[in-house]
Specification:
Layout: H1 35-65, H2 71-84, E1 89-95, E2 100-107, E3 117-118, H3 124-131, E4 135-137, H4 149-158, E5 162-170, E6 173-182, H5 190-235, H6 240-255, E7 260-266, E8 269-277, E9 291-292
Length: 300
Amino acid sequence: MRTGDRPKRPSKRAPARPARPPSAAPGRASKPDTRSPRIAALEQQLKDALEQQTAISEILQVMSSSPSEIQPVLNAIARNAARFCAAEDCGVALLREDGMLEQVAQYGPIRSFIAPWPVDRGSVRGRAIIDRRVIHVKDMSTESEDEYPTGVRRARELGQRSILAAPLLREGVPLGAIALRRTEVRPFTDKQIGLLRTFADQAAIAIENVRLFNETKESLEQQTAVAEVLKTISRSAFDLQPVLDTVIENAARLSGADVAWMARVEEGGVRYGVAAFDPHGLLRGPHAFQVVPADRRQAL
C-alpha cells in the first residue's frame, strides 16, 4: 500500500441469487402444459379429414374421367376404402338381374374370386342389403352357421374375421353392397363405420351417373339415327333402296350387330337381302338375295 492511499472497504453488495426459470412466476407454482394433447388431437383430426378429402377427390376424378364406365370407379372405391379404413381387404358386389350378388371389384390379399351368391341373411353383405343398414361382425369365427351360414363358411375358407358391410342404396333401392374384411379380430371404429358409409354413397352415386350417362347417350344415338333416316327419305323420294340401306345400317349400329339384313314378302315366298349390312361378307349362303318359300320353321 502506498503512503496516502486509503484502504478499500469490503463491498456490501448482496450475493447473486440463482436465476428463476422464465416460465415460473414469483410466488406461483409452475403448471404443466395441458395444450399438447389437445393440439395433437386436433392435428390428427385435420390429418384424417385431409386424407378423407383426398380419397373422395380421387374417386371424383375417376368418375369424371370415366363417365360411361363403372369399373374404374368401383376399383378406386375398393382401394381407398381398404386403405383409409385400415382393412386388409375390400370387396364391392352388385345385384344382378337374376337377384344374385356378384363381386365386381376387390382390393386386398383375400381371394378375389367369389362365386355369385343369393341375397339373404346368411352373408354379411346380403344382410346389409335386406336390412338397408350397416352390419358389423366383430369375429365371424364365433358366429353360428344358423346365423351366418355363408359368412362362417367363408371365414373357414378365406380366413376373414372382422367384417363390416354397408348397402349401396339409390333412393332406398339396393344396388349392391361394399364390405371390409380383416384377417384378425379387430373391430372397426365408429369413424371407420362412418367412412364406409361415405364410400358406399359414392359408389351408389357413381352407378347412377353411369346409368344416366349411358341412357342419355343411347337416346341421342337413336335420335341421330332417326334423323339420318328422315334425311335420306327427303333426298330419295322416288328411290326406296337408299332408305332401306340407311335403316338397316343404323339398326345394326344401334344394336351392336355384326350383320343385319331385311327381308320382304313377295309372291311365292320371302326375299332375303333386300337391304343388308354385311361388312365382313357373311351373307353368302344359298338363300342370300333369293326368294325362298315361307316356312314357319325357318329362323332367318
